[in-house]
Amino acid sequence: MADSQAAFEELLEPVLGPAYGLALSLTADPPDAEDLVQEAALLAYRGFHTFQPGTNFRAWFMRIVTNAHLGGKRKEKRRPTPVEIDDVPDHFLYLRSRDTGVTGVAEDPVEEFLRRVDVGEIEAAIQSLPAEFRGVAALYFGQEFTYPEISDVLGIPVGTVRSRLHRARKLLQKELWDLAVEEGVIPPEEED
Amino acid sequence: MAPSERMTCADAFARLDAYLDRTLTPEEAQEVEGHLKACSECACEYRYEERFLREVRAKLKRLQAPPELMRKIRSKLGSMDG
User: Fold this and answer.
1) Which one, out of A4, A6, A13, A122, has a CA that is 20 to 30 A from the CA of A100?
2) What's the CA gap between A45 and A68, in Å, rounded?
3) Closest alpha carbon to A56 in A133, A120, A139
4) What is the pLDDT of residues A146-173, one digit of tens each?
5) Got the DSSP string for A46-92?
6) Which DSSP category does B41 fall into?
């Protein structure tokens, strides 16, 4: 059993940071995220005999984190009411940057934009997404999973991954833009 | 906007995310690529989206688990064995 624990820990340790990131996106609360990862680790260890050596441990463990979250009784933290998705155009950041002249001001507008936005703010923007988009966004942005991997982890069709991600991307860009305006990185738009 | 022979800006715009994520068919990807070569504005937009994705991912990679978390898990696993 000690050998098995050592083998499990060896695989778990490198994915702990990413798993915590996913848990944080899902729960929007650091203590809850810690609890979720601990619970998932215990579940994973119990089922470790079903893990096939040489396959993707990270994807296997992320699926357990996601399922533990879905099956858990954690209360959703209150999130700000999200904006209507249909009100947000595709490629929101680019269009706003272009239309407000930001792209003409900075040599590298994305770098300028993101330079002042830290990881906590990006996490907060993901956490503010509606629940159905949060997991997809966390796996895509935070874990760099492909569509089939996300589909496998969340148990939803690839087409659903694609459509949710499309919407999540728009909302995330809108959240980050609002944040940048709020913090004065980008001047507010003038009313006509 | 400079028109591409085979794809309009609106067509390219609608496919940029999929192109970025490499989920287009090779033929579609080639068409988008051709358009991006011919249209500087769409190419500028593509670079913007690509950069945004790269930067967001790089920032999220810096997120660390709390230092005590692995120790807590190790301790719980140890007590399960006992």
Assistant:
1) A122
2) 13
3) A139
4) 999 999 998 899 999 999 998 898 888 8
5) HTGGGS-TTS-HHHHHHHHHHHHHHHS-PPPPP-PPPPPGGGSPTTH
6) H
At A28, is the secondary structure helix, strand, or coil? coil
Instruction: Copy the structure tokens of residue B43.
Output: 């190419």
Q: What 3-state DSSP class applies to A1?
A: coil
Share above pLDDT 90 across residues of chain A, in percent, rounded to a whole number: 41
- In chain B, which residue's Cα lies nearest the Cα of A35? B69
CA atoms of A117 and A22, how far apart (whole Å): 19
- Do residues B23 and B15 touch, judged by C-beta distance below 8 A? no
Separation CA A104–CA B38 (nearest Å): 21
Per-residue model confidence as pLDDT tens digits over B46-77:
988 898 898 889 888 888 899 899 999 999 99
ipTM: 0.80
**Which positions in chain B touch A19 (Cβ < 8 Å)?**
65
The terminus-to-terminus CA distance of chain B in angstroms comes to: 70
Per-residue tokens: A80 = 């700000």
In B, minimum Cα distance to A45 occurs at: B77
CB B21 within 8 A of CB A166: no
Which SS3 state, helix, strand or coil, does residue A146 take?
coil
Q: By the 8 A CB rule, do A27 and A38 touch?
A: no
CB contact under 8 A, B48 and A119: no
